[in-house]
Amino acid sequence: MSRPVYLADVSLDIDEIYTLSGExxxxxxxTKRSKKGELIDIVDGKGRRHICEIQQVIGKELVVQVxxxxxxxxxxxxxxxxxxxxxxxxxxxxxxxxxxxxxxxxHPWQADRSISSWKKKEExxxxxxxxxxxxxxxxxxxxxxxxVHSLKNTKELxxxxxxxxxxxxxVYVCHEEADEYLVPSFMDFLEGMNDDMSVNVFFIVGPEGxxxxxxxxxxxxxxxxxxxxxxxxxxxxxxxxxxxxxxCACEQVQEKVVK
Length: 259
Hints:
Layout: E1 5-7, E2 17-20, H1 22-31, E3 39-43, E4 48-58, E5 61-71, E6 77-84, H2 90-101, E7 105-110, H3 122-139, E8 147-148, E9 152-153, H4 154-166, E10 170-174, H5 182-191, E11 199-205, H6 213-221, E12 225-227, H7 236-258
Parallel strand pairs: 1-3, 6-7, 6-11, 7-8, 7-9, 10-11, 10-12
Antiparallel strand pairs: 2-5, 3-4, 4-5
Helix pairs in contact: 2-3, 2-7, 5-7
């Protein structure tokens, strides 16, 4: 059974004694019923992982000793989700699933056809996504919690895409009317990479009404590549996760071929 993960913004050394308190400790003691001698992971959300042995359970606090420390290396390819706001919690489902799949950062997008809106409640909406990322990261035992960026409208998104593309990033727009599929396009991209390259790959997912033709034109003009994910049209909640899964599978195939 995998070790449970708890979040604390700390940097500890091996053999150091630490007291986990607050909401995280409450969850460990009351919900998980953690006991002396059990192993847990304490992560800082930025890639640092402490494997700890519980020494004492005092009230609703855990006294632990650090057994091992590791820092996750940054992947050669970091994946990012640009998710349009969508109704009925479908955007939140996308955030949760993509976090579990390993996405590095998430960018909320107020698309032209987004029925849902964060108008006058952006901070509340963003905080909700942040909390989803935290829970999903702990559930999937990640040491890195994806950063949720500020909300962008289409004009702001195009400026951002132009910026990251000029910096070497690859940006794909998941669109049901695209002329090419993601897999061959991404495989070509992987074959052109050097072993020491470190790149960012972004997936843009539209709302339930789809991405408008004007948005597609604007995004394409600044370097984004429209792609099909498969033969069927996916919901806003599942398109990003499906794209991420395809890309990760392509990456694994490419690594095997190179070896």
